[in-house]
Design a protein that fits this description.
By secondary structure, the chain is of the alpha+beta class. It has 5 helices and 13 strands.
Length: about 325
């Protein structure tokens, strides 16, 4: 298996890559109509353990006889995705999963990008500077921090307008991809910094320390799988996020909203990525067709009638 970039995430975890897909998590969570919260050590410990288990699940998919794709685990699921439907589902019987003073949100979605190749899709999900164009209106700004053979890092300014919040999030990520073979690639991701900006857009806006604030987003992590087959590319994203807990008095009201918004957010992000990849594939096809037409024209054109020049005798 070829690893295109390498960087350590946390002890006991596989290396991490932050792909396009983490941005959807900014609107998976709820606006907490309660006092500000702090990320507690017990909450962070539970998150680390959960991410570790997610990494192990990904590693198991690489074993002999295992299914690389989630869609391949159910025939009806595969049929829907192959037919052009985006399928989204929660992971596990309890979602969000309650941990001490927090919630872990875990959703998976799949899309089939017909007539595309890995060479069409991968450049799209690594085009960090264009995330602000591809993933509007959630991403207000996106910048490349550093890219090299060993590491990719970038930042995004995220905003949640779903609930009329005057809050934005300034976030940093690290990225890494793993090439299993010529047709299969997977990536994992993590946020390295999430700072909430209160009163965003006003003269009173200010940054809060990492782990402080509303608790809408504390940590982000994702695993993405790419498989080129059946005349296109299957793309799957398992997106995970850590937020504060929902107060008992609000759970009956907020929990259904969290589920509905989570599903819709993942679907929208996958659709946006699909559209960007399709556009790239179409442009590449047009260029290839134009190049072939030009080559044919050159071969079939009659050569000019020339008179050879003789040296004077």
């Amino acid at each position: 298996m070829k690893q295109t970039t390498a960087l350590a995430v946390m002890p006991g975890m596989v290396t991490a890559e932050c792909s396009t897909w983490t941005i959807l998590l900014t609107i998976l969570f709820f606006p907490a109509a309660v006092r500000p919260a702090s990320l507690e050590p017990a909450t962070l410990k539970a998150w680390v353990e959960y991410v570790d288990s997610a990494n192990k699940r990904m590693e198991q998919r690489l074993g002999p006889g295992k299914t690389f794709l989630w869609v391949d685990e159910a025939h009806d699921r595969l049929a829907k995705v192959r037919a052009g439907e985006i399928v989204v589902a929660p992971i596990g019987p309890e979602n969000p999963k309650r941990v001490p003073s927090g919630l872990i949100h875990d959703w998976v979605g799949a899309v089939f990008i017909a007539h595309a190749t890995l060479n069409d899709v991968l450049p799209v999900v690594r085009d960090y500077a264009r995330f602000k164009e591809m993933y509007q209106p959630v991403v207000l700004d996106s910048k490349v921090i550093a890219t090299s053979e060993a590491e990719d890092r970038f930042s995004m300014l995220l905003v949640n307008k779903s609930f009329f919040m005057k809050t934005a999030f300034d976030t940093d990520y690290e990225s890494c991809y793993f090439h299993v073979d010529d047709r299969r690639v997977y990536s994992v991701s993590r946020s390295t910094r999430i700072q909430e900006i209160e009163e965003y857009g006003s003269g009173a806006q200010h940054f809060l320390p990492d782990g402080e604030g509303s608790g809408v987003i504390w940590r982000l992590f994702s695993t993405t799988r790419f498989f080129e087959r059946d005349g296109g590319v299957y793309l799957e994203l398992e997106a995970m996020g850590l937020s504060r807990d929902i107060p008992v008095s609000l759970r009956w009201l907020v929990a259904p909203i969290v589920s509905r918004v989570s599903r819709g957010s993942l679907l929208t992000s996958l659709r946006q990525t699909e559209n960007a990849a399709r556009l790239r594939a179409e442009l590449a096809g047009r260029k290839a067709g134009s190049a072939r037409s030009t080559a044919v024209a050159v071969r079939t054109a009659r050569p000019p009638r020339c008179v050879s020049a003789r040296a004077p005798s």
